[in-house]
From TrEMBL:
This is Uncharacterized protein. The keyword Repeat applies. WD repeats lie at residues 107-150. Pfam families: WD40. PROSITE patterns: WD_REPEATS_2 (PS50082).
Amino acid sequence: MDAQNKPQIIEHINHSFDNTVYDVKWVDKKSSLISVGERLDKKGYISIYNLNKGKFTCISNSKTDNGIKTIIPFYSYSGAYTIACGAFDGSILLYDINNMSKEYYSIKKHTKLINKIDCKNSKNNNIIVTGSRDGSVKVFDIRTNNEALSLEPPKDSPYIPDCWCVSTGWKYY
């Protein structure tokens, strides 16, 4: 195999951020990306950047009360393109990407930070899965504000493992 047939990583853009970045996702069917994390004052942020002519331009920058560790963009049951965020305080926050001024949904069921959040990337989605530092995995139905399922670590165990990853399938959770 010669140099031209080997896999290559090509840098298209080099962009610096002023804050700690914990997660970045592309916006569906757009040349934009979402960046989340924590600012120096321990508040969170959600920024949307547009890719245009080889540069990123910040088109939206929202501040949150707590740092944001993980995000997943999806189409909610209402049909809106939504950003689901897992926060440092154990909260799930939902934002409409067209109105980032305030979350339209917030629920706190974890006692520690949410390491990972996921949902099916299909239209009319209403189920969100989270994994937390408190060792639990929770499945939420955002239409009812309730947990559909909660997998908890043993209460009498001296060791509570972190849950670092959750994933949903196309048809199954």
